[in-house]
Automatic annotation (TrEMBL):
Lineage summary: Bacteria, Pseudomonadati, Bacteroidota, Flavobacteriia, Flavobacteriales
Enzyme class: hydrolase
Annotated GO MF terms: peptidyl-tRNA hydrolase activity
UniProt name for this protein: Aminoacyl-tRNA hydrolase
Chain ranges of the Prokaryotic-type class I peptide chain release factors domain: 16-32
Source organism per UniProt: Flavobacterium sediminilitoris
InterPro entries per UniProt: Pep_chain_release_fac_I, Pep_chain_release_fac_I_sf
Gene that this polypeptide is encoded by: arfB
Signal sequence interval, chain numbering: none
Amino acid sequence: MNKEIVISELKLKAVRSSGAGGQNVNKVSSKVVLTFDLNSSLGLTEEEKEYLKERIATRLTQDFILMLNCDEDRSQLKNKEIVIKRFLTILTNGLKKPKIRKETRIPKSVKEKRIKEKKNIGLIKQSRRKPEI
C-alpha cells in the first residue's frame, strides 16, 4: 500500500454539522465526509483490493466505496485530520494478516495427572457404595 497515493485519491467534502456550536452550526460546514473508491485506487495492488473487500466488507457500499464521517470537533481542519487518521487505521488493520494458530501438544504429565485424578474420584465414589452381602 502506497499511503501518499491513497491519501491523494481521497475525496473530502465539508457538510453542515449537527450538535454543539450554537449559531455557528447554521453558518459553518465543519463536518467532513470522506469517500474512497476501492476499485479505482492506484495506491493498492489487486491482491490488496480483493483482501480488503473481504476484510472490511461491512464498511463498504455495494460499489466498494468506503465512506467515513467526522463531526467531533467544531473545526473543519481537525475533523479532516481525524477522519484521515481513522481511514488509515481501517486500511492498515484491514491489510494485516491474522496470525496462524499453531497446534500445541498436550504434555504427557498433564494427561497422566488427569487420569490419576479420575481414578482417585472413582475410588472415592466406590468407597461410598453399600457393601455387597
